[in-house]
Every structure is written in structure tokens, then in C-alpha cells.
Amino acid sequence: MVCLVTMSTEILFVSFGEWVLGPTACKLIVYGQIVTLAATTFLLTAMSIDRYQVSGALSYCRYVALVVVLWRPASSSSASVTALR
Known about the structure:
Blueprint: H1 2-16, H2 22-52, H3 60-83
Helix pairs in contact: 1-2, 2-3
């Protein structure tokens, strides 16, 4: 997800030498980049904490719940950063 959101727009920017997708797309893509990076960081941190505990590996249901819970703060923190740009 991070590569899809980040690299596809960077390829366009490097190819044309300027931003060609407009100001609205710029804000949306920056928001997407921040959300995916924050969610990845939160998810890796939560998985590390879970692995450290004695309880063992994540079950599928617990993993899905963890992903949903971690995307919320990533989305909300990214919204405030994007709004300030």
C-alpha cells in the first residue's frame, strides 16, 4: 500500500518535472502517504509488542481488529497534518 500510494505519484512527478494532478489531488495524495506510513508504523509497533508477550502469534481475527484499530489514529493524525498544508 505504501509503495502504491507513494511511488506511483513520485514517478509522475519525476517524469513530468512538475506536479500535473492539480491542488486537490496533491492534498489527497499527501494525506494518503501520511496515513499509510503512520498505519505501517503503528502496526509494526503493535505486532512487536504482541510478539514480545508470552501469548504467542496473532490470530487472524485479532490481527484484523488490530489493523482496524490502528488505522483510526493514523487517519485522524494525518488529517490534521494535511489540513495545515
